[in-house]
Write the structure tokens for this entry.
Amino acid sequence: MTGQTSRPSIRPVTKVSVIVPAYNESRTIEDCIRAIVVQKPAGLPVEVIVVESNSKDDTRRIVMKLSKELPIRVIFEDEPRGKGSAVRKGLAAATGEVIIIQDADLEYSPADYDKLVRPIVDGQALFVLGSRVLGVGHWAIRRFDGARLRELLFNAGGQAVNGFFNVLYGTHLTDQATMYKVFHVDAATSIEWTSNSWDLDVEIVAKLVRSGVEPIEVPVQYRARTGTEGKKMRLRDVFTVIGAMIRFRA
């Protein structure tokens, strides 16, 4: 797809803001943050904003320790209010011209930041999606060892939901559900983000597309984790996502 290339108010990119919502991610949060702070996508400095939602495990303690050692900013919530709520707090605090949202579970690799940011820096697009489908070269992006039926259902369901979004919004995306939704903040100045849960993922794509900002997709690495590894999304969240697609299209 061809991304929208310019708007009169678009500022040059001088900094990238990475927002990390963190809740019960003690196994991966330190590796995730350390992997982010060494990145310099397109040669630019990275601002890391961690929003910690009062986890029940050691995530908060680890984040506090890292905040004394590494150049990160931390927002501490007194209770979890959903991923969308945490991300919105990070968006409000961000000072970079380009936004990256990074889940703390490391299913996605910060090593892909450069390819995600460069199209925006080079003026090719204002909005970039990191496609897991393009990254692995086929539609079955999830792998559940010893649970082939569940694997098939997850992958087929994901493709069905993606297809529904394309029909609803007139797009041809391979992976609208990707976590890597990278955009220039000036493309979203008139947009108010409202979602508190998984529906923020839909809201970002839906509202930017409806405002005329066409995304381009680049392939990214992806290592799916299972529920036993701490995967938080459940079947009921799929209905939240579908409902959001319809709501933001109205």
The longest helix spans residues 148-169. The two ends are 24 Å apart (CA to CA). The mean pLDDT is 90. The chain has one domain: 16-249.
